[in-house]
Amino acid sequence: MSSVTLNNIVKRFGNFTAVHRSSLEIAEGAFVTLLGPSGCGKTTNLRMIAGLLDPTEGEILIGGKRVNDVPIHKRNLGLVFQNYALFPHKTVADNVAFGLKYRDVPSSEIPRRVEKALELVQLPHVAHRYPKELSGGQQQRIALARAIVIEPDVLLLDEPLSALDANLREDMRVELKRIQERIGVTTIFVTHDQSEALAMSDEIVVMSEGRVEQVGAPEEVYNTPASEFVANFLGASNIMDARCTKAGAHVTVEAPIFGKLDIPADKAPLIETEGPAKLVVRAEKLLLSTSEAPEGVVSVPATVETVDYQGQAVRYFVRAGDTQLQAINMIDGHPFAEGTNVNIHLRPQDCAALPGQ
Amino acid sequence: MGWNLIRAWTFLVYMFMFLPVAVVVLLSFNASQFGSFPMTGFSFRWFVELAQNDAILRAFRTSIILGLLTAAISTTLGVLASLALVRYRVPGTNMISTLLIAPILVPEVVLAVALLLFLNFLQINKSFTLLLLGHVIFTLPFVILVVQARLVSIRRDVEEAALSLGASPRQTFFQITLPLMLPAVLAGALFAFTISFDDITGTLFWKPGGVETVPTQIFAMLRNSISPEINALGTVMILMTVGLPLLGLAIARKLSTKSGT
Q: Which of B18, B64, B129, B155 is spaced 20 to 30 Å from A179 by Cα?
């Protein structure tokens, strides 16, 4: 188990800069997710930590030691790939034992360690099968067992759940987190799936176009996005041009439709001065109602334009004046029909604000 | 109606292709001195005579040694070239690839004469080594084509997984990459062997005086007379050039079912 530090890392491929100068500190034993759309540089970062790519500039430290010049096979890392990457010509037991052969593990002890690893991923009975005889989920568990049996300093997971079916993916998510907590290994997880990131991570690193947009706990990243990109990428947000009329302990933002809103300062940490700002309202914080708003809740009349039925929730597109807004509400009785006139209720403390351009 | 016509036609085409071969095989068991029908009796005498003919035995030995060496060198070079072309970013990959494949695009006679002229220009005399060199040039493209196709289908992340688990690049090659591409390597080696064993055009140009391979020996014997011995020799050749690849295919299939790829 070790901490991982990226110091002013830059990665260029020819003229293309995949990772702009960025630094990152990953604590020992933490579960950190690199989250972003494809091409944001998250996999490039992971591959540089793994030693599969050399950074153009900057240094990588694992457990406080500079590893730039240490080749991958001497870094003691566990690596799990999207497509499992099991050795097709070796049995499950030989796959799991592979890494142990290159370590100072007495050969009498290897079978015991393999068995223990297979038990940890709940597949103790498949040791003598070949990978192609296993399902995708089972193969991914074996890949995980193969990576953790060597007791790596850092576990690197490159979209390990993306190749699985939706149901299986959620089971594996819980399973993976359970195993990680049990062995306590520092884990870096790469994904483009925000729900995976929110559910599993101690800390999320949101990346976009080779830059780190925000680093924080899942709740922090979700509730207080540091940029428009983060607000849009995690969940559905309404972002409006607004004006900050008062900065300080309580921030007042004046937005079209909603008027003046008092926002707690911790929801607008980046606002330092009065001036142009952006109002960020999560779609699920806009409550559609036909009744009057209670005390302290802003109410705005609107018309339902589109209804997107999702089972336990509905996504509405509503029009208030000339602004279209998105609202996700739990269904209470029947969803509103298209064309219904409703009131949008919004609690100011549920809003967040960003500095405007 | 139409189908029957197609069937009959297909049958005739196959007859045209394989009947002459069948006749050679059949006549090699003929007891008579003269290769003609009807056969006068069944006998192995031509095979026995073959086994006692020094010139033929010598040609056989030459062919087998030449074939084995060609297979060994071509396969080694082919595997290395394929690795470089598929796994590493070599400048001018496309051009190198085309150049390596080129020998099968050039008519063999042209290649044979070209190599001969080139050696003449360098004032190097014909020798067994040069014959071997010619065969390697001629068989290398087949090995590269087969091995490259296989290597492309071996996912890079399997090798990366081995590296991450602590295997050095060399250990990764012998533990992972080579076993996974073994069927293609064996197929390439067999190709090289049979092509070399079978080759006459290039060999006629390149072979030094006094050295005969099986095909050139048959060619020389045919110039004198059509002895039934040639039928027997032909049968042995067919057995080797058809049987070996079939055997290789069976082995490769067995290997790949085991590894599940």
A: B155
